[in-house]
Amino acid sequence: MKKLISRPSTWVPLLVLACLAGVPFFAQMTGQMFYVSFFARIIIYAIAACALNVALGYGGLISFGHALFLGLGAYAVGLSSYYDVGNGWVHLLVCIGTCALVALVTGVVSLRTTGIAFIMITLAFAQMGYFLFVSLKIYGGDDGLPISSASKFGTFSLGSAANIYIIAFLVLVLFLWWFAKLRVAPFGMALRGARQNARRVKASGVPVFNVQLLAYVVSGVACGIAGFLLANLNAFASPNNLSWIVSGELIVILVIGGIGSVFGPLLGAIVFLGLEEVLKLYTEHWMVIFGPLIVLVAILGKRGIVGVLQRFDKPVDRYTAEGEKL
After folding, report:
1. Residue 7 above 90 pLDDT?
2. Which terminus of the chain has a smaller tally of CB atoms within 10 A, N or C?
3. Structurally, how many domains does the chain consist of?
4. Among 234, 217, 220, which residue's Cα sits nearest to residue 69?
5. Does the residue 19 lie in any domain?
6. Mean pLDDT, to the nearest integer, of 97-110?
7. pTM of the model as a whole
């Protein structure tokens, strides 16, 4: 307990999670159910950022096309609903299967490149997906596809914001725990080692390409699950979910929270979406203010919010915080 108190980089995110757990109760007491929908959106974006963090933060794979998987997850619900399939397990199976297959195919191609080429080819794949769904007029084209039937798991339905919030929160906690374990597991160590020096790791006998490809597929599937939840929250699947702007937002969320850290995606999503919502209340030109603020955060905290919190960790824990960044 004493060690936990001495590490703000750990207890502050845990406190944030505890506050998020109380949002539905607060909304119920105040009669402001808007908070449930708003924070559900934050949690879903945090899940998507956690997914990207596996590829970008752990593996150094700067993907500018993860919106592709977010959109595929959303359309897995939308297209299933369009054909009168309301079974949530079918929606989830289609989501995971499609995202895994697409991530495998695009990953095999993309990972044969590095640097700027990797960024551009992942962006190209995402834009291909975007224009594909825009061209499908039968499914709404660029107007999007309304979802008439939410995902149903027996008697439990994702047709209400409260139910989506509960599931999204549990998924976020599960992902944070799993990715924290993954980071220090042999697979995670190999992935992070390849980010630092792929040639040296490959020389030690580790199949770097296979490790990076698996990380990319896991990242894509996890991002697809976020899209699955987002579609149920909005009751709508839109091609905009696949646009490069969404991919950029996920990267900005990671930069704000702390790339490669476990809790960075959560803190970044809260600051990014929360600040956006607050600025919208005061001016319609909120992006003029929002842009410089993001740049300022990136300059002042090179490791994001988590890096700032680590500065307040006691010296005895600082080495651990640096080596096993949370």
Report:
1. no
2. N
3. 1
4. 220
5. no
6. 96
7. 0.92
